[in-house]
Design brief:
Layout: H1 2-38, E1 43-51, E2 60-62, E3 67-73, E4 76-81, E5 84-87, E6 90-91, E7 101-107, E8 110-115, E9 120-124, E10 127-133, E11 140-145, E12 151-155, E13 158-162, E14 168-173, E15 179-182, E16 188-192, E17 195-200, E18 203-207, E19 216-220, E20 223-228, E21 231-236, E22 242-243, E23 250-256, E24 259-264, E25 267-271, E26 277-280, E27 286-292, E28 295-300, E29 303-308, E30 311-317, E31 329-335, E32 338-343, E33 348-353, E34 366-370, E35 379-385, E36 388-393, E37 396-401, E38 404-407, E39 416-422, E40 425-430, E41 433-436, E42 440-442, E43 455-458, E44 465-470, E45 473-478, E46 481-487, E47 498-504, E48 507-512, E49 516-521, E50 532-535, E51 544-552, E52 555-560, E53 565-568, E54 575-577, E55 587-592, E56 596-601, E57 604-609
Antiparallel strand pairs: 1-10, 1-14, 2-57, 3-4, 4-5, 5-6, 7-8, 8-9, 9-10, 11-12, 12-13, 13-14, 15-16, 16-17, 17-18, 19-20, 20-21, 21-22, 23-24, 24-25, 25-26, 27-28, 28-29, 29-30, 31-32, 32-33, 33-34, 35-36, 36-37, 37-38, 39-40, 40-41, 41-42, 43-44, 44-45, 45-46, 47-48, 48-49, 49-50, 51-52, ...
């Protein structure tokens, strides 16, 4: 019995040791997990700034009018946004590769900008320099200078820090960032799509918010204020944050002293320490509120306002820009001397030249206004046929007459993508085929290479072919029947996804999304047959956007997705890029005019004088 008791005690002691060992292992494992979660992955990679070439040609451009950021300096006021960057002397955007500025601040007194299309740019000695980093292109949403003169960069790729004059860029955290706030001491707060994080020393910890998607962020004394899709929330620096009553519809906010000012449905609300809101009257509808140097600014329909001792005054007029909303241009057309703009995720806008404005190219200013009506949205193509403007959009086909949009039969045809004038009327390209004049619909069932008609072109001559471009190839309609088609595997097209068709001289030029351009020459033996196709090797990898092949000033121009504007050489042998400052390198629409070529992009519109200088192609 005694022996049995000793054995029991031994077994119990061994079990206790095992439990202690297991508990210690579990504690170490859980600690490692917590450290992995709370500790940001800090790395450093190379950073250098390279001067950008200056633009010799000044081009009239229109983006959006929305202000993204303001900065006050002893030299004056800077404002930046979808229109570029302005200082007291005017537009200083020239030299940047694109127009839309998503983030802006002053770093050691020098302008620094993050573009919506990606990249970080510093202005020094009246010229822009591009940051080249070991992390690749950064998509920046927020820029902030620390009291020590370091630059904090909030990007889709994480939170970064750069010291002035250093040749390295440090990544503090990998979580995507849309907003940054400086706390007491070395404490940082960063928020984005994955929530709000508090960074101090070598650790990062999450801060609970009513919604994990953080759009805006500020520190006010010992409190945090954040903007989420559920509105404003505030609370202690360590959290948790709770919703602010009356600020559920807030779309933007700023902190000035002990006050929180929020934009809610076009109104400016001021929240006192008690939490009760009061409305502050402004002379125009408010879009955004901003603070710089202890001064309050408001972005409004009439321009940038500044609040002073005598109330709200205009600090900067609204720059020449497209109507409020999207500035992604997807189609263009001329009607009665006015430019009609079709928007990718919107309706129509009309630009009218007013003439005689000093300081604008060709002495002409333009005014823009939206076209009312819901018959067109998500515009894909525009066609002026006999003075009547036809609109192809995701809501079908409509006509613009008397300043009003009217839907065109058939109402149940679905989304429309292309238009072409024929001898019998207007042919319309839909998602399920081509509607010919006379209401006959042809589709893949009738022999077309596909149903979605992205491009249409009426051919000249006796054959009188109507060419149809689809994601699956190129087809030709003769009369009311499909004459022939060419698809992947035939060896004629460099890529089956046909997006643009245009005649230049006697030949048909075919643009593809991913294979560049090919020229079709009519065969003498059979003018109604497929003909002979010859590709342009220098365009082999180009993605030609829908409708982006036009003739202007006797030359053929090509718009690409990400590679800018190209032009066919005078002898027709090859294409070469055109070096002009566009709002974006993503060219999405082209429209020739009397003395200009209008170029639509995903960040706005440009007007290029014609003819352009004859540089070697």
């Amino acid at each position: 019995m005694a022996l049995s008791t000793v054995r029991k005690r031994f077994i119990l002691a061994g079990a206790a040791l095992l439990l202690l060992g297991g508990g210690s292992a579990w504690w170490r494992l859980s600690r490692q997990v917590r450290q992995a979660f709370y500790t940001p992955t800090r790395t450093t990679r190379t950073l250098q700034f390279a001067p950008l070439p200056t633009a010799d040609l000044r081009v009239e451009r229109w983006g959006g009018g929305e202000v993204a950021a303001v900065a006050l300096s002893p030299e004056g006021l800077f404002n930046a946004g979808a229109f570029g960057v302005f200082d007291g002397g005017g537009d200083i955007t020239a030299g940047l590769p694109s127009l839309n500025v998503a983030a802006f601040t002053l770093w050691r007194g020098r302008p620094v900008a993050g573009l919506a299309a990606g990249g970080l740019f510093l202005r020094r000695d009246r010229a822009w320099e591009e940051a080249r980093t070991g992390y690749g292109t950064l998509h920046i949403r927020e820029l902030r200078e620390t009291p020590g003169g370091e630059l904090l960069i909030g990007a889709r790729e994480g939170l970064f820090r750069a010291a002035w004059g250093a040749n390295v860029l440090e990544r503090l955290d990998e979580a995507p960032v849309k907003a940054i706030a400086l706390g007491p001491g070395a404490l940082l707060f960063a928020g984005g799509e994955q929530g709000l994080r508090r960074l101090g020393g070598l650790e990062a910890a999450p801060v609970p918010t009513p919604d994990p998607w953080v759009e805006g962020l500020a520190v006010m004394g010992k409190e945090l204020v954040v903007l989420t899709p559920k509105g404003l929330a505030r609370g202690p620096l360590e959290g948790p944050l709770v919703a602010v009553s009356g600020a559920e519809e807030a779309s933007a906010f700023a902190v000035l002293g002990a006050h929180v000012l929020a934009v809610s449905e076009g109104r400016l609300l001021r929240f006192e320490a008690s939490g009760r809101p009061s409305e502050e009257a402004l002379p125009a509808t408010v879009r955004k509120v901003l603070v710089s140097g202890g001064v309050l600014f408001a972005d409004t329909e009439t321009g940038l306002l500044r609040r002073g001792s005598n109330g709200w005054l205009l600090a900067r007029p609204r720059p020449a820009s497209l109507p409020p909303g999207t500035c992604h241009v997807n189609a263009l057309a001329l009607q009665e001397g006015r430019l009609v703009v079709g928007l990718f995720n919107g309706g129509l806008a009309i630009g009218s030249p007013s003439g005689g404005a000093a300081g604008t190219p060709n002495g002409t200013s333009w005014t823009w206004h939206p076209v009312p009506g819901s018959a067109a949205w998500g515009v894909n193509a525009l066609l002026n046929a006999g003075g009547t403007l036809h609109v192809a959009s995701l809501r079908g086909v409509a006509r613009l007459a008397g300043g009003k949009l009217q839907p065109v039969e058939p109402l149940d045809a679905g989304a429309a993508f292309s238009l072409a004038a024929t001898r019998d009327g207007v042919a319309m390209g839909f998602g399920q085929g081509v509607l010919l004049p006379g209401s006959r619909m042809l589709s893949a069932f009738h022999g077309l290479p596909g149903n979605q008609a992205l491009a249409l072109a009426q051919g000249p001559g006796e054959a009188d072919l109507l060419f149809v471009g689809t994601p699956s190839g190129l087809g030709a309609i003769s009369g009311s029947k499909v004459a022939w088609r060419t698809v992947a595997g035939d060896g004629k097209l460099p890529h089956p996804w046909v997006t643009a068709l245009v005649y230049h001289g006697p030949d048909l030029f075919v643009g593809t999304y991913g294979g560049g351009v090919v020229r079709r020459v009519t065969a003498r033996s059979g003018p109604a047959g497929p003909g002979v196709f010859t590709a342009f090797p220098e365009t082999a990898e180009l993605k030609v956007n829908t409708g982006c092949l036009v003739e202007s000033g006797g030359r053929l121009y090509l718009g690409t997705d990400g590679r800018g504007l190209w032009r066919l050489s005078a002898d027709g042998s090859h294409f070469a890029p055109v070096k002009v400052p566009l709002p974006s390198m993503h060219v999405t629409a082209l429209q020739p005019g009397k003395d200009a070529l209008f170029v639509g992009t995903d960040e706005g519109l440009a007007r290029l004088p014609q003819p352009l200088s004859e540089e070697p192609d």
